Amino acid sequence: QPPQASDNPPMEVQSPCIDICTLDRDEVCIGCGRHIDEVVAWGTAPDELKRRILEAAERRLAQMQTQAQAR
After folding, report:
1. Rounded mean pLDDT of 14-21?
2. pTM, whole model, 2 decimals?
């Protein structure tokens, strides 16, 4: 019998860390876009929360890029 999608555990949500780990004045990492509270919570956060953190981090990074280009 062929494997079913439900036979495989869901893929673990990978950390967006790129080893830059520098916070801006709003306590947001300029490397991954996560707020310090999200970085701290990451290790024990359920996957659904991690996905929401990733979405917010992507928005923050895009906003940082837009602001940097405006300078």
Report:
1. 96
2. 0.81
